[in-house]
């Protein structure tokens, strides 16, 4: 299958390993990955911070970049959530019904990685091998906005050698929330502290998730606290052999 | 020809409890430093969450019930004037008197005057959010009338000269030893040997309240529902103290937000399943009191209904925001909110705390008067999932953020980012230049404000040598 990659601005700039892993994984499964270079950012940060009109050109750019592809994948539940739910709304609010309809179409063809693997490609065993103990944090937008459910866990359970350790209070937000972490830094840090305690209580040396943004937050906190626990994007584990 | 009468007014300044003294982040700073508060909140919200989760799981049609509740509320909002007039007609037919209050000032004046006419110097109160919202107690006190709260938690707040911090459990920020101290200090006739054993605390409150019930002639309540079809009002509570207030006195004055009207008696079937399960985790509500006008020889012989707008029409005018008027004040969204759990209710500055407060208060007052509240959320979405009437709180928050005033520096950065990000080539160049971690120093630990908020507790990731885009191009 020919799959277009929406890398997300964060993975492109700061976490390219997650994006490269996505490419390696899909190619290993026998698919063709294309990277339309016109892509930039989904605009979620603008929408969520109250800059909806400013996000409109970003919506337009996403739609025009990916309109020609049947299947689009992004290694981020949060960006997929924004593309699916916010893009049509931003276009509609600006009175652009045509763009809203196209945004809706493209959004319906845009999948988060675990959705693509399980729902579209029909695989749970991706042939990965990762002999480590791992705990999984289900990020809020994957969980409640696009409802990936237990798809990431099903993928992880098939990874050879991987021991999955359940994260206590897993569904609690890590406190990231985009600009929330700046505007309400102390509240965000209090939420992060509890998430870090939960992660460390598992004894797993690796915490994984389907969103680089939340991992940047949790990982940044763990590193500051001098914790030996590392964060790793789900794609990197699934790509490992 | 149509005449545009202008936008409906928001809740007036200078009266009521809808505006805080300081922005949310500053108020949260104080709350976060209070370890006792955080422990009390964590314990209380975790307990309610678990209990509520269990009884909700028992119902196979919970999602359908939520949809039904949401649909009924949407229908109400689409024909609010008609339903309110029908309610007024039915209440009047059955011997009640209906008053219309455009805002807090009018409502307070109406209620104060009604009490004054009875000659009573003291009133008993059923726990009510609407009367908290308009600061009715303060207005009564200023007129020389003593209001006595009869809900146990509300009484604790009143005696402690405190403010409520939760919709359902106003004293959630207090633990039992603090409650004992408040009782010893402020409850008339309390036993000086009172312990902090919960049954002993409840018994002390009961002794005090029983005397008050039997010697007070006027009661003031809110209403959970007002049924347009029959003119029936309903109050839902757990202690029975509300029922005492609603049945014993000669005069009953009910202050009801205009959005609390429902079309028909049968609609309660939906809400009386949703409300107790979502709020206290009970299958059935313990005390549901309903009354229709005046029944000769039974219960209060004078009944007044005050219909309160106080900004609600302004909320109704906003297509996205109006969903907030679906709220049945169950407080499930507070109990699941990770922000509320850590900051408590006072940080929100308004009587409506938590996620619903963050969307309702700014709409009632106008966003400029509560500009920090729409940002007091990580948009995790737990509130939306928990809400029994399916209010999409995260979407309203995002919507209100558009109306909030933005700091000029932030605006400049966001505009520049949007400009670059809608031009792929410029974006790729800017990306290579962005070496955030360089200016942050070694291991990304010292950025200037507002980015310092991040580096106070978290390291920045190291900037990789090559972007994905460059790797792809070189592949
Ligand atoms: S918004 Fe929903 S969950 Fe929150 S108090 Fe209102 S009805 Fe309950």
From TrEMBL, chain A:
Any single Gene Ontology cellular-component annotation: cytosol
Domain Cysteine-rich: 3-83, 134-218
Superkingdom of the source species: Bacteria
Gene Ontology molecular function, alphabetical: oxidoreductase activity
Protein name as annotated: Glycolate oxidase
Gene source species: Actinoplanes siamensis
Automatic annotation (TrEMBL), chain B:
The name this protein goes by in its record: Iron-sulfur cluster-binding protein
Residue ranges occupied by any Lactate utilization protein B C-terminal domain in the UniProt entry: 402-475
PROSITE patterns per record: 4FE4S_FER_1 (PS00198)
Domain of life: Bacteria
Residue span, LUD domain: 84-294
GO biological process, one term: lactate metabolic process
Recorded GO MF terms: 4 iron, 4 sulfur cluster binding; metal ion binding
Cited Pfam families: Fer4_8 (PF13183), LUD_dom (PF02589), LutB_C (PF11870)
Domain called 4Fe-4S ferredoxin-type: residue spans: 324-391
Classification lineage: Bacteria, Bacillati, Actinomycetota, Actinomycetes, Micromonosporales
Region (Disordered): 1-20
Organism: Actinoplanes siamensis
């Amino acid at each position: 299958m020919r799959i277009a990659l929406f890398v997300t601005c964060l993975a492109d700039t700061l976490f390219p390993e997650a994006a490269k892993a996505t490419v390696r994984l899909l190619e290993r499964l026998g698919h063709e990955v294309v990277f339309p270079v016109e892509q930039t950012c989904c605009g979620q940060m603008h929408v969520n911070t109250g800059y909806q009109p400013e996000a409109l050109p970003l919506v337009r750019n996403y739609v025009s970049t990916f309109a020609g592809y049947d299947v689009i994948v992004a290694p981020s539940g949060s960006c997929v959530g924004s593309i699916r739910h916010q893009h049509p709304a931003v276009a509609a609010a600006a009175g652009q019904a045509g763009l809203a309809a196209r945004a809706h179409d493209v959004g319906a063809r845009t999948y988060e990685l675990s959705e693509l693997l399980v729902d579209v490609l029909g695989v749970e065993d991706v042939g990965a091998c990762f002999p480590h103990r791992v705990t999984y944090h289900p990020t809020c937008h994957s969980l409640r906005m696009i409802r990936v459910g237990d798809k990431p866990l099903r993928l992880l359970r098939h990874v050879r050698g991987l021991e999955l350790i359940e994260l206590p209070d897993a569904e609690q937000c890590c406190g990231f929330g985009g600009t929330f972490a700046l505007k309400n830094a102390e509240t965000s840090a209090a939420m992060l502290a509890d998430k870090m305690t939960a992660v460390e209580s598992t004894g797993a040396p690796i915490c994984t998730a389907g969103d680089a943004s939340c991992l940047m937050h949790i990982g940044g906190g763990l590193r500051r606290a001098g914790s030996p626990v590392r964060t790793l994007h789900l794609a990197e584990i699934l790509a490992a052999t | 020809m149509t005449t545009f009468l202008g936008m409906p007014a928001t809740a007036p300044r200078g009266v009521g409890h809808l505006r805080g003294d300081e922005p949310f982040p500053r108020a949260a700073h104080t709350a976060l430093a209070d370890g006792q508060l955080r422990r009390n909140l964590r314990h209380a919200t975790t307990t309610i969450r678990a209990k509520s989760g269990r009884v909700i799981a028992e119902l196979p049609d919970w999602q359908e019930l939520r949809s039904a509740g949401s649909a009924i509320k949407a229908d109400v909002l689409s024909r609010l004037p008609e339903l309110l007039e029908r309610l007024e007609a039915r209440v009047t037919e059955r011997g009640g008197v209906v008053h219309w209050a455009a805002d807090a000032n009018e409502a307070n004046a109406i209620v104060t005057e009604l009490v004054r006419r009875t000659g009573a110097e003291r009133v008993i109160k059923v726990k009510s959010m609407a009367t908290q919202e308009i600061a009715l107690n303060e207005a009564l006190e200023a007129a020389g009338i003593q209001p006595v709260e009869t809900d146990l938690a509300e009484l604790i707040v009143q005696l402690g000269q405190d403010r409520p911090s939760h919709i359902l459990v106003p004293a959630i920020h207090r633990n039992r030893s603090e409650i004992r101290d408040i009782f010893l200090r402020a409850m008339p006739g309390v036993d000086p040997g009172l312990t902090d054993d919960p049954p002993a605390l409840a018994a002390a409150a009961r002794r005090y309240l029983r005397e008050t019930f039997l010697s007070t002639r006027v009661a003031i309540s809110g209403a959970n529902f007002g049924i347009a079809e029959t003119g029936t009002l309903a109050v839902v509570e757990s202690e029975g103290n509300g029922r005492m207030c609603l049945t014993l006195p000669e005069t009953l004055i009910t202050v009801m937000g205009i959005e609390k009207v429902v079309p028909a008696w049968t609609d309660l079937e939906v809400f009386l399943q949703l409300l107790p399960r979502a709020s206290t985790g009970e299958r059935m509500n313990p005390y549901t009191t309903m009354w229709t006008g005046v029944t000769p020889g039974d219960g209060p012989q004078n009944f007044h209904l005050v219909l309160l707008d106080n900004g609600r029409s302004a909320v109704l005018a906003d297509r996205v925001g109006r969903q907030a008027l679906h709220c049945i004040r169950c407080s499930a969204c507070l109990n699941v909110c990770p922000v509320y759990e850590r900051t408590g209710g006072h940080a929100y500055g308004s009587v409506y705390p938590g996620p619903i407060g963050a969307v309702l208060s700014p709409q009632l007052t106008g966003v400029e008067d509560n500009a920090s509240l729409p940002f007091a959320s990580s948009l995790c979405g737990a509130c939306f999932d928990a809400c029994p009437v399916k209010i999409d709180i995260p979407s309203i928050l995002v919507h209100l953020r558009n109306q909030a005033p933005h700091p000029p520096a932030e605006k400049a950065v966001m505009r520049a980012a949007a400009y670059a990000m809608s031009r792929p080539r410029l974006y790729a160049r800017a990306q290579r230049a962005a070496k955030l971690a360089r200016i942050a120093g070694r291991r990304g630990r010292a950025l200037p404000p507002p980015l310092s908020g991040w580096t106070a507790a978290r390291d920045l990731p190291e900037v990789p040598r090559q972007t994905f885009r460059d790797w792809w191009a070189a592949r």
